[in-house]
Amino acid sequence: MQHLNRLRVGWCNMGSRACLLFFLVFLGFTQLYAQPLIKISGLVADESKRPLQQVTVTVLGQRQSTVTDIHGAYHIYSSQKVFTIKYTLLGYNPVLVNVRQDKAGRIVQDIVLSVNPNELEQVTITNKQNQLSNSITININDASNLPSVSGNFEAILKTLPGVSPNNEMSSQYSVRGGSFDENLVYVNGVEISRPIMVRNAQQEGLSFINTDLLSSARFSAGGFEARYGDKLSSVLDVKYDRPDSSSAVLNAGLLGLSLSSKISQKNSYLLAGLRYKNNAGILNSQDTRGVYTPNFTDVQLLYNHDLSDKFSVNLLGNFNSGIFKLVPESRETEFGTLNASVRMNVDYDGEEKDSYQTAGGAVTFKFIPRSNYVMKWINSYFRTDEKEHIDTKAWYEFEGKTDGSSAGIVSGSRGVGTYTNYAMNALTSGIFSTELKVDQIFKNHTFSWGVRFERKNYNDNLKEYTRAESFESTLPVVNGIYQEEQIDVENKLAIQYYSAYLQDSYSLSANTNLQLGVRGNYNDLSNQFLLSPRLLLAYRPGSNNKIFRFTAGVYQQAPDYRSIRNFNGVLNLKQEAQRAYTTSAGLDYAFDGLGTRLKFSSELYFKYMDRLVPYMMDNVRVKYLADAQAKGYTYGVDFNLGGEFVKDLLSYFRLSVMKAGQNIRNDAQGYMKRPTDQRINFSAYFQDRLLNSPTYKVHLSLLYGAKLPVGSPLAQQYSDDFHIPAYKRADIGFSKDFLDDFSVKKSGFLEKYFSSFTAYVEVFNLLNINNTVSYLWLKDVDNVQYAVPNYLTGRRLNVKVVMKFKKSK
User: Fold this and answer.
1) Is the model's pLDDT at 496 over the cut of 80?
2) 798, 801, 802, 808 alpha-carbon torsion, rounded to 10°
3) Could you tell me the CA-to-CA distances from 568 to 462, 471, 485, 612, 662 in Å, in that order?
4) How much is the CA Rg of the chain, to the nearest whole Å?
5) Sign of the torsion angle spanned by Cα atoms 21, 22, 24, 28
6) What separation in angstroms does the CA of 342 have from each of 473, 723, 727?
7) Whole-number Å distance between alpha carbons of 534 and 555
8) pLDDT tens, 412-466?
9) Contact (Cβ atoms closer than 8 angstroms) between residue 377 and residue 363
10) CA gap 693, 697 in Å, rounded
11) What is the tens place of the pLDDT at every residue in 372-409?
12) Diameter over CA atoms, the chain
């Protein structure tokens, strides 16, 4: 525990106020009394007395849950004398066992599960797809415990192999050298899109995914199968599913609150979630001082009803609203080298107000005419209204300093000027889709096919103006592709997409499985018919602790409104689909070490793109060179090691090495770095217990991303002459569940009303590192251009409480 002692000392040395607040929160509940534990253990088998593994064992109304091992064995604890245990495994009928125990001790409870013939073949379909899926399963509990500034589920993705972190406020992510727009996101089979106009991460609010409603999540960083859509980089597939029991959870903290409810009945279930976020305290840690008013709200409902054993209907509804207002007052930014630094002082006038509202939903019909045949018909419509109003003017002054200290002597003014930003933009988009999916088993084949129609409508009004002046001379206007000029355009566009896929997963031998698939798609914008074959081969040696995977495929991303709109708002209606040829080889290896069961994963990959739309990055805004075309490549390797170094707490470490280049046609510059060419990425998510008590926990997140290339906006053509410094981030969280099943002392008041009561204290940006997200490009009196860094958030403290209410009797 020496590492924990050093961790506690380092954290308390960070500041007496943070340390004092931490202990006040955890010592606020002092009236505690002893509570005995009951240990339940046993074996779970089928009707033929064969042991069943991965059976979920849950103590209803408590947070205890476990799964059986390969021998069907399990053990679990209860803090109450009268309780109910539930045993569930997909494909088998669930079993409920009522237990009454007068005193603490041990109970042996063996269980036999009977087959549910209506679900057994569906289990085979699911297991075959998961085994032949080049994806990883995300631990939902990790997403809840991870200290995160954004509070969005996507924060956990930035700790995964192949994902590049560079902005803690954003839910957007880059995967293996791809842009934010190359990632697919599904919720219950419904493809989710993100707002288009967001240019700064501080404008981002709540992502679509509600962590409190999640039942499972899988992520693929590449090489995904044909049943997923037509994008180049990754797939995130999350599910809201039937809960084990009814529950209600309240999460309240300094950054907002969320309330979720799950109601489970015999033939139906209802999930409801309300979230509110206000991160003004985090935004105030940035260089720009002013009045921040961010208000973000999200409401989600999901209702599922089984009309019969063979037919069910699922309704998903969502309303997501974000309003961001900033009245800037001043800014002070220091940059440069240690011995020759520059300070920029800015005074502001004006304000910025941005808003977006997304409303819509989906209706899914599920039909199971036979036990080995599953059909889904998914229909969805979402409408998004985005508005952007910026009217600010800034007066800036550069001051040189003779040394690098904060109190360095000012050597004199090096330039005074102004820059003006004006935007009055409005975008309305509507997306309708209908899709039919079918899965069927033929002996050792799992055959899948689907067809999809999608229509997207856009109504865009752009009015933007940017002007910069140094002294009395206006900076020269450069008519290159990066120079932002006055924009005043109106675009209306409708695009129709048609797609279909065929996929077959089957066993070549007892140890080898093969998946072959193909996607076809057509759109009436580029009028291209595209075929994308894909292959995945999985091999397990004699032992079950290793699996080798090989993937190869073609991925083609049809043009969309975001990629065909140029810097000046003009649309390139002749743009062709982007295309990538990918291949990868991977290994998953499970072994015993360091006192626990560990899993090591690695994957080597190569992507060649013969058609790319080049772009540049400005914060979270992807600015496409819509009239240009490029070819490129990405290759690299990912490593991941994880395990429960402490019981029930998963920790993992990952390292990614990558290189991404592109060659824009007809620019005579050859290959250069892509904007996402982040050569090295490292992350660690480590969890441990504090103070020798299993109820006190620490959650530590470490992120490192190497420097990113960037070009000057005044260049005549694409360039990678400059770079954004490496991203370095450490966030730490401390938690205590006052009703943890392993706790020997519990509050009678809390036990009466709650099944779980957990307090968190989080320190964001523990080392207070200034990470750069983008640059503001200005000139001084000598016509010297400065790249003024826009820094991300500084150190901040957050406190929250997560309460799970008991069911009323």
Assistant:
1) yes
2) -160
3) 9, 27, 7, 20, 23
4) 28
5) positive
6) 22, 18, 22
7) 8
8) 566 688 888 999 999 999 999 999 999 998 878 889 999 999 999 999 999 998 8
9) no
10) 8
11) 889 999 999 999 999 999 999 999 888 876 554 444 44
12) 89
- What is the 3-state secondary structure of 77-94? EECCCEEEEEEECCCECC
Residue found by looking up tokens 């589920």 in the block? 153
- pLDDT tens digit sequence for 307-354: 998 999 999 999 999 999 999 999 998 887 666 688 889 999 999 999
String of DSSP letters for 468-505: EEETTEEPPP--STT----EEEEEEEEEEEEEEEEEEE
Distance CA 77, CA 449 (A): 44
Both structure tokens of 349: 């006038």
- The residue behind tokens 């602790």 is 545
CA–CA distance, 65 with 79 (Å, rounded to integer)? 13
Q: Pick from 633, 655, 632: which is nearest to 642 by CA?
A: 655
Give the separation between CA 145 and CA 188, rounded to whole angstroms. 23
Q: Which helix (H) or strand (E) holds 26?
A: helix 16-26
For the stretch 55-112, pLDDT in tens is: 888 887 666 678 887 778 888 888 778 888 888 887 688 888 888 887 777 888 999 9
- Kindly provide the b/e burial profile for residues 723-743, where b requires at least 16 CB atoms within 10 angstroms of the residue's own CB: ebebbebbbbbbbbbbbbbeb
H/E stretch holding 248 = strand 247-253
Taking the C-alpha atoms of residue 300 and residue 272, their distance in angstroms, rounded to an integer, is 6
Q: Which two tokens stand for residue 104?
A: 């603490």
Residue 126 sits at φ, ψ, to 5 deg, of -65, -45
107 is written with which tokens?
């109970």
DSSP 115: B
3-state secondary structure 443-468: CCEEEEEEEEEEEEEEEEEEEEEEEE
Alpha-carbon separation of residue 748 from 34, 610, 800 (angstroms) = 10, 66, 21
Provide the token pair at 575.
Answer: 């743009």
Listed in order, strand segments (DSSP E) in 310-405 are: 311-336, 341-370, 373-401
Whole-model pTM: value is: 0.83
Q: What are phi and psi of 786, to 5 degrees?
A: -110, 140
- Residues 633-658: pLDDT tens digits? 999 999 999 988 887 788 999 999 99
- Quickly tell me which residue has 């290896």 as its tokens: 589
Beta carbons of 238 and 190 less than 8 angstroms apart:
no
Q: Is residue 548 within 8 Å of residue 564, measured between CB atoms?
A: no
Helix (H) or strand (E) holding 562: helix 561-564
Q: Convert 721-732 into a string of H (helix), E (strand) and C (coil).
A: CEEECCEEEEEE
Neighbours of 766 (CB within 10 A): 20
How many Cβ atoms from other residues are within 10 Å of residue 48's Cβ? Answer: 7
H or E segment and range at residue 621: strand 621-624
In angstroms, the Cα distances linking 14 to 18, 40, 796 are 7, 43, 11
120: left (phi over 0), alpha (psi -120 to 50) or beta: alpha
Of 640, 544, 643, 651, nearest to 596 (Cα)? 643
